[in-house]
Amino acid sequence: MMSSVPAADKKSKLLVYTIEECPVCGQKLSKEGKVLSCEKKHSYDIASQGYVNLILANQKRTKDPGDSKAMVESRTHFLGQGYYDRLSDHVNEMILKVMKGSSDRRGGFNVVDVGCGEGYYTERLQRFLEKSDVESRFQCFGVDVSKSAIQKAAKRDPKIQFCVGNSYQLPYLNASVNVIVSIFSPFDSNELMRVLRPEGKIIVVRPGPNHLRELAALLYDKVELQGNPSNLSANLNRQPIDTSELSYPMHLKTQQDIASLVGMTPYFWSLGEEKRAILAEKQELAVTADFRASVFQK
Question: What is the pTM of this model?
């Protein structure tokens, strides 16, 4: 069972507790000062930035998994220009709708951003919920395998509990989470179901078939639509209970914005010198943002 110790500032609707589990033995972690520890005395220091590292060496495929510092910086710059604010707002409204419709609010409402990266979406969700009319107390969590990303994320808002962790072995207790959000991030469906409460929801966002098609046309001789990325029924073994689409034009205003967008996409890894030169000449670029969001019930 998780503890539920309310914060002193009731206006923030914030609960200060942990739902993290020990990656060694699976027991509940409790916070004492700057340390998370379990009853078996496994302990994990909370870094000065405010995050905790809950990934074991045998859970890593490489020495430094996940996004590199360069990719994190590209994403931080691009998202900081507001190009995906509309997507963030859309997802936040979806989460608020789920919160208002939930009858399971015991001890608070927990939202976990799986593959949270440098925390852009998580931070905007925290601000949104603080200003909303939702009556539930809540706690936002963010987890990502990239230490560089989590170090950046943890500086955004100390009220959000960020940790370095493996999305295929989530560092959260069984049946402890109300809503899981996955925005462009991979996951293991069994792990999501394990940590979700009985009425829990999963919100999955993926690129739509026309996402960044203009950028792709610059880089490839033949551009094929991406099919139906919102159809995740096979992955989660269930049909979505709600779906939505969001598409809008974006005008990238600077060469740095273009470079940062490319730096945070899979295109970056397949660029040759010729294509890099083409992009370097672009000082602005009109592209399409196209997203699909699906809500799944446990």
Answer: 0.89
